[in-house]
Amino acid sequence: MDRDELKKLLDHVADGSISPETALNDISLTPIQNIGYAQLDLARGIRQGTGEVIYGAGKTADQITGIVTALHASGQKRILITRLDKQKALAVTSSLSQHSLKLNWDETSHLGIIGENAKPDGTGTILVACAGTSDLPVAEEAAQTAEFLGNSVERLIDVGVAGIHRLLSHASQIADAQVIIAVAGMEGALASVIGGLSSAPVIAVPTSVGYGAGAQGIAALLAMLNSCSSGVSVVNIDNGFGAGFQAHLINHVGCNH
After folding, report:
1. Which pTM does this prediction carry?
2. Pfam families in the record, alphabetically (predicted)?
3. How far apart are CA 152 and CA 147, in angstroms?
4. Of the CATH numbers 3.40.50.1970, 1.20.1250.20, 3.50.50.60, 3.90.226.10, which one belongs to the domain with range 125-251?
5. Where are the alpha helices (DSSP H) in the chain?
6. Is the dihedral of CA 160, 161, 163, 165 positive or negative?
7. What is the per-residue pLDDT across 145-200, written as a single tens digit (0 to 9) for each?
8. Smallest Cα–Cα separation from 82: which of 55, 49, 48, 45?
């Protein structure tokens, strides 16, 4: 149960369509469900506004299916799965169909979604700027995470500083964004440049894209951490999900959720 569902439940109590005892029973469901290989946090939606997210890497398809079906049975109808590769996605899709559940899987972001994206209700637009096509999987993980959580998202693709005119041609979008996610590998300069063009918070995402001295994203990470632009924060290497979630929180400051 998330906050919106809790509010609906309380509204039903207020209008008399549900008894206080029934509501209390629904709210008092065990907040932790132990299914052997995982302990599910069933109250996270009430605390944080969105339910538990499943990290797919390292889990088997059967484990993912078990977690999804348990969360869904507990009332969490919208479920996000990250780092879900194609082989697991096919297996999970087949298994979930036996429970009348449909998995929507994206090949670029490796995200799996059960249910629909939340209706966009943030205070503005999240802009995801991707330095190069090779950074696109991480950028799409960020963008689709933000969309799942209920945000309007715009994308700038292949706007790295090696051809800075490509980025500057989108100056109006950069100026209008409520929060910007800058995704870049190599030397990671995109975040600093965008930070100097915008008054919005910039979330920098270093990627593991680059040659040997890039050290699988360490060079981009250190460059972003040492950005000379004010208002730039940094998440972990390839952590598009974390950036999308953080951007969602910023875009919902002041919203009644």
Report:
1. 0.87
2. AIRC
3. 6
4. 3.40.50.1970
5. 3-15, 20-27, 44-48, 61-73, 86-97, 136-149, 164-168, 171-176, 190-197, 218-225, 240-251
6. positive
7. 999 999 999 999 999 999 999 999 999 999 999 999 999 999 999 999 999 999 99
8. 55
Could you count the other beta carbons within 10 Å of the beta carbon of residue 21?
9
Distance CA 18, CA 15 (A): 8
Residue 233, beta-bridge partner list: 203
The pLDDT score that the predictor gives to residue 30 is 56
Q: How does pLDDT run across 110-142, given as a tens digit for each residue?
A: 999 999 999 999 999 999 999 999 999 999 999
> What's the whole-number mean pLDDT along residues 41-67?
89
Tens of pLDDT along 74-104? Answer: 888 899 999 999 999 999 999 999 999 999 9
Burial of 68 (0-12, 13-18, 19+ CB in 10 A): buried
pLDDT band, very low/low/confident/very high, at 45 (cuts 50, 70, 90): confident
Residue found by looking up tokens 């979630």 in the block: 245
Q: Over the range 90-104, which residues count as b (16 or more CB within 10 Å of their CB) and which as e? A: eebbebbeeeebebe
Distance, in Å, from the CA atom of 140 to the CA atom of 73, rounded to the nearest integer, reads 29
Got the DSSP string for 132-174?
A: SGGGHHHHHHHHHHHHHHT-EEEEEES--GGGHHHHHTTHHHH
